[in-house]
Design brief:
single chain, 396 residues, alpha/beta, Aspartate Aminotransferase, domain 2, Aspartate Aminotransferase, domain 1, 2 domains
Amino acid sequence: MSKTWNKRTTAVHGGTRRSHYGEVSEAIFLTQGFVYDTAEAAEARFIEAGADEFIYARYGNPTVRMFEDRIAALEGAEDAFATASGMAAVSGALMAMLKAGDHVVAARALFGSCLYVLEDVLCRYGVEVTFVDGTDLAQWRDALRPDTRAVFFESVSNPTLEVVDIRGVSDLAHAVGAQVVVDNVFATPVYSDAIGQGADVVIYSATKHIDGQGRTLGGVILGRRDFIRQTVEPYMKHTGGSMSPFTAWVMLKGLETMALRVNAQTASALALAEALQGHDGLVRVLYPGHPSHADHALCMAQMGKGGTVVSLDLKGGQAAAFRFLNALQIAKISNNLGDAKSIITHPATTTHQRLPDDQKAQLGITPGLVRLSVGIEDTADLIADVKQALEVAAGR
C-alpha cells in the first residue's frame, strides 16, 4: 500500500490480502480454526505467530485482519483490533489498560452505555473516575493527577454535539503521563485526525458510519502497535469480544463507500441546520458545522466539517417532540446513527433514559431534544419532511 494515498483510496484498497485465486472482492474466511502441517509447526505458531499466521478466530482471522489493517491505515494508527460491537471496543480498551487504584478523568457528556462502564463497571473494580465538563480545559487541568492513568471523552458528544478540544486535552493529559482515549464516532474516520491531534487510542462503533447501512454490529480500537498487540489483544482474545469474519467483510465493503456517504450526509445536515435556523417551533438547532454553534471554530479546525448529526430542541417539550417524531415520513424512529437512512430518536426516553433528570438537565438533554442522524436521501425532501413535521408538532 502506498503511504501517499489519500483517505478515499486507502478506504478502498488498504490492507487487502488476496489468495492464490486473485479475487477482486475480499475473501470471507469463515473458519474458526486453522490447520498446521506438523505438530512442530503448531508449537512454533503458539510461541509466535507471523503476520499472516493465525491460530483461532477469536485471536485473529485473515478477513478481520484486512479490516484492521485498512482502518488503521485510514486513521493513521499503527495497528487496530476489531471487536464485536462499539461498546466491546470502549469497555475492552478501558478494561485492558486499567487496574484497581488507577484514576480516570472523563467528560461528563457521554453515551449512556459509556457512562455505565465508567460509573458502574470500572468503579466496581476499584478504578476511581472523575467527571468534568469536556469543553472546559480548566476543569480537565484541575482534575488530572499524577496517578491519572487515562482520560476518556467523545470528540463530539452524544446527543448535544459539544466538541472537545482533542489537542488541548491531550497536552494536559500527557503532561501527567495519562493516555488519551477518544470515542470518535461522530467525527467519523472521514474527518478524523485524532491521532495527529494527540489521541493515543481511538475507538469507533463500526456499526455506525463504517457499516452505515444498518446490517451488523462492530467496533474497533486503534493505537500504537505495542498497545494493541500487548495490552488490548490479550484481554480481548481471552474475554471473547472479537469481530466475526463475516462482519469484517461487511465492514470492508462499508469502508469502500463511507466517504461518499458521509460527505453527502454532512452536506445535507448543514443544509438542514441552515434551513431551520430561527424556526418558531424550535428552541435551538445544534449543529457544530453551523456558525451559530458555540464550538463551530474548534469543529472546523479539528474536523473540517460538521458531521452527519443535527439535534433539534422543540418548543413544547416531550409532547411536541413525540408529535414531531410520529409525523416524520422519511426519517425513521430508531436509536442508531450514521446510517444511509435518516434516523431520529428522543434521547431523554431512549439512549439516555437511565440518567436522573438533574443529570439530563446538566447535559442539556431536555424533554424537547431530538437527535437526527441525516441519511443520503434527497436534501430537499428531508428539509420538507422536517418542516411539515414541525408544523404538526406545533398543532398547526
